[in-house]
Amino acid sequence: MDFQHLNVKLFVDGTEAALEPLVPIFHRWIQNKPLEELLLDVADYRHVYDGPGVILIGHQANYSLDNTDGRLGILYNRKAGFEGTNQDRLQQATRAALVAEQKLETEEKVPGIHFPGKEIQLVINDRFIAPNTLETRAAFEPELKSFGDKLFGAGNYSAVYESDPRKRFGVTLTASRPVSAQELLANLSS
User: Fold this and answer.
1) Domains identified in the chain, total number
2) How far is it, in rounded angstroms, from Cα 130 to Cα 124?
């Protein structure tokens, strides 16, 4: 089963983070092209309670500081297909989220955003290919184990799957210790 359209959310500290500085920052990112994807526009959904926050819209993917379900995080939403294996896709999407997180942490006008290196949520944003069922979980578990072992090290994380069948198929990985974005990127590259 090919898992495309991956979402990766890095949960961050920063419940008091102001999202309004993101609008000009994301516009600057469109102009300066610091990320791999073609970036097109910015959408401001700060007015939506527990919603998508501020979205940097791209051709292949969107980036956002998302507050869905009241959990603030940097969300990478891969929209376009990506060639390669499921592992390649998981690694690409996670790498993109980590790079965006590092870039946001260095922005002076967005204080209070910090990735503590503990929780990463993976969602397959395609209910047709990956309905939230036990069959999808069985197909995804070997991929997840291989990916989690590479990212955090075997036995150094736990996985909790989304149990509500009305929601998209997803899993949250929780590391047994804080791991920096730098270290996670190095693990993905090894």
Assistant:
1) 1
2) 7
Task: Give CA separation, 57 vs 52, 139, 144, in Å.
Answer: 12, 30, 27
Q: Is 149 within a domain?
A: yes
The confidence band for 64, taking pLDDT boundaries of 50, 70 and 90, is: very high
Residue 112's contacts (CB-CB under 8 Å, 6 or more residues apart) are 13, 14, 16, 17, 18
Distance CA 45, CA 55 (A): 8
Give pTM, 2 decimals. Answer: 0.93
Average pLDDT, the chain: 92
Helix axis angle, 181-189 to 134-152, nearest 10°: 100
What span, in angstroms and rounded, lies between the C-alpha atoms of 120 and 100?
14
In terms of residue numbers, what domain contains 21? 6-189
Give a yes or no: residue 163 inside a domain. yes
Q: Has residue 1 been placed in a domain?
A: no
Work out the average pLDDT over 110-132. Answer: 88
Average pLDDT of the segment spanning 105-118? 79
Sequence-distant (≥ 6) Cβ neighbours of residue 74 within 8 angstroms:
9, 10, 12, 63, 64, 65, 66, 97, 100, 101, 104, 113, 115
- The answer on pLDDT for 144 being more than 70 is yes
Is 22 within a domain?
A: yes
